[in-house]
Amino acid sequence: MIVKDLKTLERFDSAKMTKVNLFETSRFFCDVYCLLPGQEQKIHSHAENDKIYCILRGEAKVTVGNERQAIGPGRAVLAPAGEAHGIANESSAELVCLVFMAPHPGLKS
Questions:
Q1: What is the per-residue pLDDT across 54-79, written as a single tens digit (0 to 9) for each?
Q2: CB neighbours (10 Å) of residue 61?
Q3: H or E element: which one contains 77?
Q4: Of 37, 48, 79, 99, which is most buried with the most CB atoms under 10 A?
């Protein structure tokens, strides 16, 4: 069994959002995204991959398709394959988000 302490994985960089890998297999990945105030993940899409953003700490502005909503700790959002999506920290506090994506975008069939 592999157990990791999420709190010890938090990493912040004043230059850009930080992604820290939590778990990864050939079928999925799960990362911890750490965003300081004013940082964002640009809007983008994945044709064949679903993504879930789960807010652990702070408040995020999440975009999926034509919708944009503020979500806080304990809330999760699904970005289905093909939908444009992204996350931004427009608050004055740190943002920590768990991100799950499947199938793994690096998987080549």
A1: 999 999 999 999 999 999 999 999 99
A2: 16
A3: strand 76-79
A4: 79
